[in-house]
Specification:
Helix content: 25-40%
Number of helices: 6
Length: 155
């Protein structure tokens, strides 16, 4: 009633890998995505691409197959990992768990985009025959992300 669009981050489709990456299970997020589909509330899916963590082909196919079950997706955003928040961990005296992880290359993003954009019906492991699932995929470069942030002057 009060929400007309949900931006939903799926940290990882695989439950065990989600716990390893975030410390939390993904069950509630996936259930929420299904609920939003059932009530037909528009959703933008946001997937952070972290090399070595969220870029495995089989996990991406599982994500693609899950998304194919949803009827309310307006857009999928591929968000490449960046280190913009790393300083927060340093300032808190905490260990930055992704130390040494580099942002994905344009080629890696293109591979993932192609995989997710390919027709669901051509996937042998697809649980659906949904030929109409063709989400718009955006790739947001970290430099573009900075360009859209409001500037705040500090004194």
């Amino acid at each position: 009633k009060y929400t007309d669009l949900v931006l939903l981050d799926i940290k990882h489709i695989n439950p065990e890998k989600c716990v390893q990456l975030t410390g939390f299970k993904n069950k509630e997020t996936l259930n929420f995505a299904t609920y939003l589909s059932n009530i037909n509330l528009p959703v933008w899916i946001r997937q952070v691409i972290i090399p070595g963590y969220t870029d495995d082909k089989f996990d991406l196919l599982e994500l693609k197959n899950f998304l194919a079950t949803l009827k309310n997706i307006q857009k999928i955003e591929l968000l490449p990992y960046h280190e913009l928040g790393k300083f927060k961990w340093t300032e808190l005296g905490e260990i930055y768990e992704l130390e040494g992880v580099l942002p994905p290359t344009q080629e890696e993003i293109n591979r993932i985009k192609d995989l997710l954009e390919s027709s669901i019906s051509t996937s042998a492991s697809s649980p659906t025959n949904n030929d109409t699932f063709v989400p718009v995929l955006n790739w947001i470069h970290p430099d573009e992300l900075l360009a859209h942030l409001p500037l705040v002057a500090s004194m």
